[in-house]
C-alpha cells in the first residue's frame, strides 16, 4: 500500500480536496487497495473542522463524494508513516520541513510537481476565493501523481 499525505495550511481546502480527489481517482482505477491518501494541516487553527463549504460545493459539483472530514495537524511521526508527503505551496513546504526536522528521505514535494509544473504553488482559495481554479489544479496534480504511482506499481498508465 502506497500512503500519501497531502498538507496545506488548515486542512480544510486544498489538502482535504486532494485527499478526496486522489482517493476517488484510485477507486475508479481499481487501485483503492494499492493507493491511500490522507490529509493534514501545517497549523492548528482549523483542527476538527470539516472541508470548507465552498470547496466542498466545488468538489460535489464535479461528482466527488465528500465524507465527513476532521482537520488535523501533521506531526513528526507522519514522516515515517507516509511514502509521499505533498504540500501545496512554499509556506507548506517550509512548515513541513520544520515539523519533520527536514526531509532526510526525499518524501516531500509540491502537488503541481506531479503535473510537470515543478516548484509551482496552488494558491490558497481561502484567500483567492477561486475554489474552482484551485480544484482544477488539484485534479491536474492528482492525475499526474496517480499516473506516476500506477507506473511505479506496474499498473501502466491507461
What does this structure look like?
The protein is α/β, with parallel strands linked by helices and 158 residues long. The chain has 6 helices and 4 strands; from the N terminus they run βαβααβαβαα. The chain has a 4-stranded parallel β-sheet with strand order 2-1-3-4, with helices on both faces. Helix 1 packs across helix 6 (131-153). The protein is globular, with a radius of gyration of 14 Å. It starts with a strand and ends in a 5-residue tail after the last helix.
Short descriptors:
158 residues, alpha/beta, four-stranded parallel beta sheet, 42% helix, 13% strand
Class from helix and strand fractions: alpha/beta
- Walk across the major sheet and give the strand order: 2-1-3-4
How many strands appear in the DSSP assignment? Answer: 4
Average pLDDT, to the nearest integer?
Answer: 96
Poorly predicted runs are none
Residue share in helix: 40-55%
Q: What is the helix/strand order? A: EHEHHEHEHH
Helix count equals: 6
Largest sheet: 4 strands, parallel
Strand content: 5-15%
Shape: globular
The radius of gyration computed from the alpha-carbon positions, rounded to a whole number of angstroms, is 14 Å
